[in-house]
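Customer ticket, subject: "Can you confirm the structure for Amino acid ABC transporter permease?"

Message body: Hello, I'm evaluating your service for our small team and ran a test protein. I'd like someone to confirm that this is what the system normally returns, since I don't have a reference to compare against.
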Amino acid sequence: MSSVLYDVAGPRTRRRTLAWSIVGGLFVLALLFLAYRQLDSRGQWEAERWQVFWEPPLGQSAEDVWRSMLITGLGATLRAAGVAAVIALTAGLVLAVIRMSTSRLVRWPVTTVIEFFRGLPVVLLMFFAVFALGLPTFWGVVFGLAVYNSAIFAEILRAGIVSLPKGQSEAAYAVGLSRMQTLFSILLPQAVRRMLPSLVSQLVVLLKDTSLGFIIAYPELLRHLQTNTQFFGQRYWFQFFVVGAAIYIAVNFTLSRLAVYLERRGTKKAAGGVAKAAEPVGGKVGGGEAGPAV
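Agent reply: Thanks for trying us out. I re-ran your input and got the following:
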């Protein structure tokens, strides 16, 4: 047997794959066990160290600790990421449309701009916004994230449009649609659905890159984790690291699941729903025609 892209593995290959999977799993478990032992030897699993989250020392309350992370820190992270995402998606769409122009005088300068900003580090753009343009730290983070990710989103959207069959454009032109009508009514909606996983992956990267605002003193989540560690003592660094990592993972996982939901919903709408069989007439089973798509 063989599939379209590769030959289906036989019994010997499946046994070999299973054996290597078991070996790899045992190796990962061994690494995790060594890490656990190393942390345990330093007393990182002691209950007293984790009490900083419900009975913190130095006259602080658990509400103060969690508010600094979830309300102040995470709130600042989500605000910067949300504003930057809206600006980057909008600018990326504009850049992608302009780059699809048939005029070289229009297309080449935009291509140069996209390639230039794709090659710059995000933190360098943040430094430029704060120290050269004099922007506040919030807008410095937003500027760096928006400028860099707009170039990435432009390339993602352009790749989605280019990947569509040319027959769709030709059919649209044949019925009298203009180039812009074809682009925005036919090509772009399909490109967004097709490239949605890549768009969401880049949004996750954008969210994580807000932690670079720590370098320019923007009070995002990572900055508050470090502040808490310095206030309560370096002996709590591992505990705040674990909680901070869990917060980042939870937010990014939620964003990914939302994208999956939107992708499935968009696919169903694009397919016109699922056809249902008509109810039997006169109590007889069969003979019914497929009902209208829902």
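A couple of notes from the result: The radius of gyration is 26 Å. The longest helix spans residues 62-99. Feel free to reply with more questions.
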